[in-house]
Structures are given as structure tokens and as C-alpha cells.
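User: Structure please.
Assistant: Input sequence and predicted structure:
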Amino acid sequence: MTRVSISGRPAEAHAYWRDPAGSLIGLFGAGYYAEVGEETDDRQWGFAAGAEAQAHVGMSTIYAQMGYLTFPEATADDADFPLDTFFLRGAARHFFTENTKLEAQLGTAIGTFDGGETDFYLVDWAIEAEQAVGQAGVGLSLFARYEGIYAEEVDEDDNSLDTSVKFGLRARFGGGGGESLLANDRNGVSLDLPDAGRWAGVLGGPVE
């Protein structure tokens, strides 16, 4: 199966094999657009690729990713964007009922701005609660989410802490639109990617 989506975060594609009763394994690719200033050179496209897997354990889902990200126009003379970034990411979702979910995510990345020695590392995290609402089969849910990014330049004092709290209403359409949150997780759209466009903004600002 494959999934393609375009959003305010990455434009992403996932190709995977899934057994709804037990596991998922696949590959992903994505494009990110990021701006760190008002000049033309402060706007770039980045690209990511990697592998991912899920394991379904009772009412819980364990999700892991590893990948590589590059903003290929980054150079030593204009190092606002990371040229090479390697990242790991993990998430755990637990469903207290078929329509009540709690999710926690933790990821880390290291990279360079110009292809030399490691220049930075970052850690990002999130915790989210989601509750389906309305009549069965409607595909609407409410969510509350806290997320953050801490980034630091190696051998320097420059660092940044960026956090946010979000509340919202989600709608699911298509084949998984009428399913419960648990059924959608096991059979519908349950794959995503780190917000590396936001990473670029943090790294190209106070860190770099």
C-alpha cells in the first residue's frame, strides 16, 4: 500500500506492507519547504528518506523511524540550513477505548551545516490526547497536543527551546473516515513524519 499527502508540514509518501493484526514495515520520502528570513537565500526545499516500522501490542501501537534529511543548497558560505541530518524517532500510542487515544513521541537528530564535523544536535518531543466525537462513523475527533524542540550547536553556547500547545478538531475522510480511532490506526492513515521544516527554522535562527 502507499499513502501520499501534502500539508503545511511535509509533502510525504509512504510505501509499506501492513498486517493489521500485528505489524507494519515500510519506506518513506518527503519534501520540506522552510523559511528562516526574508531574503531569497533564506528559503529552501529539503528532502528526507528513510525506513519505518510499527508493532501492534494489544491496545497499543509502537512506532519507530530512522532517516536522513538534506537541504541540498546549503553551503559553507550560506549555512542557514542543515546540509546533512540523521534522525531517529519513536512513538507509543495507547487506546484506552477504541475512540480514546494517548500518544507520546520522542526523537533526536544530529547533523552538519556544511558537510564537515557534527555541528548540532536536537531533541523533539510531543504528547497528545485524542477523543472521537459525534455519532459513530462521522470521523471527527478533538485533540490536545504539547510539543517541543531543543536544539544546541556543538562546542558553542547557542541553543534554542521551542514549545507549543495545540487544540483542534480532526476530520478523517475516505476509507478510514467512518472507523474508530483504533481501527483507523490499524487499517487507515497512521503514518507521519517529524516536522523537519520547523527544525530548519530553529537551526537557522538562534542556533546557526
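Confidence is low (pLDDT under 50) at residues 1-8.
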